[in-house]
From TrEMBL:
Residues 197-277 are annotated as: Disordered. PROSITE patterns: PROTEIN_KINASE_DOM, PROTEIN_KINASE_ST. This is Protein kinase domain-containing protein. It comes from the Eukaryota. Pfam families: Pkinase. InterPro entries: Kinase-like_dom_sf, Plant_Ser_Thr_Prot_Kinase, Prot_kinase_dom, Ser/Thr_kinase_AS. It comes from Ceratopteris richardii. Residues 1-197 form the Protein kinase domain. Residues 221-240 have a biased composition (Basic and acidic residues). Gene3D superfamilies: Transferase(Phosphotransferase) domain 1.
Length: 277
């Protein structure tokens, strides 16, 4: 999952190249676009970096459909439901009212795109007070034409297209708009981000990793004391405090069927979604 590769203390200190980050964002956008454009729209409802899985060639797929819900149809503008999700990714209007729309997913995508651009977690209590919430910290920079680039991951060391980064940052800002009506659709997001990916760079990265006989994933530092390996084999932060979990309801969507229709969706492993604090 991208959360294990994006954040430095979960890896070896290396960082994902710019083009790889964009490719992941585009693949994730394809998955959400597919769900939203279905005959009966599907709202993912818990879109976050830990629900994006990667294969050996950095193809991203959405997983864990435990909270997915049918979206509004006909003249309906929203569906009303119990507020479930993950703090830091859930759209503010959904948290406040329980009204769910595809634009709720767009907000979550904006948060994940911001994580991809900054290399920072959506919520990190280890950061200084004003930086705990990534969106609150980054927004003042994103709206300033002279300061927006300050949010970019410094580990990229300037190895990115300035114009492309500006476009991606602006897409993230639009997705995070407090008024859901002003957020773009996922189709709009996809059309904005897809041209930024360099297919030659992606092919070169895959070829390089294969020729060296190494996985393109960052190799975890097993000596780190702040990292544990869960029973499922995933690395977890030993100091992280879990939010309140609830009993997983029976999924309302067959992810295996969705996957057959679109490769950006994959059957989800058993997982326990988190309830908002």
């Amino acid at each position: 999952m991208i959360s294990q590769m994006m954040f430095p203390y979960l890896g070896s200190g290396h960082t994902l190249p710019w083009n790889t980050r964009l490719k992941i964002a585009v693949d994730a956008a394809k998955g959400l676009t597919f769900l939203h454009n279905a005959k009966i729209p599907v709202i993912y409802r818990d879109f976050k970096s830990s629900n994006i899985l990667l294969d050996s060639e950095f193809n991203a797929k959405l997983s864990d459909f435990g909270l997915a819900k049918d979206g509004p149809t006909g003249d309906k503008t929203h569906v009303t439901t119990q507020v479930l999700g993950t703090y830091g990714y859930a759209a503010p209007e959904y948290v406040a009212t329980g009204k769910l729309t595809p634009k709720s997913d767009v907000y979550g995508f904006g948060v994940v795109l911001l994580e991809i651009l900054t290399g920072k977690r959506a919520v990190d209590k280890a950061r200084n007070g004003g930086e705990i919430n990534l969106v609150e910290w980054a927004t003042p920079y994103l709206i300033d034409k002279r300061k927006w680039s300050r949010v970019l991951d410094q580990r990229l060391d300037g190895q990115y297209s300035f114009k492309g980064a500006h476009i991606a940052a602006n897409v993230s800002l639009q997705c995070l708009c407090s008024d859901p009506k002003l957020r773009p659709t996922m189709q709009d997001v996809l059309e904005s981000l897809q041209p930024l990916v360099d297919p030659k760079a992606s092919a070169s990265a895959r070829s390089s990793s294969k020729s060296k006989g190494k996985s393109p994933y960052n190799t975890p530092n097993r000596d780190r004391k702040d990292i544990n390996v869960s029973k499922q084999g995933h690395e977890v932060d030993a100091d992280a405090k879990p939010t309140i979990a609830f009993k997983l309801p029976s999924p309302t969507h067959d992810a295996s069927k969705l996957q057959k229709q679109d490769p950006s969706v994959c059957p989800s492993p058993t997982a326990s979604p988190l309830r908002m604090k």
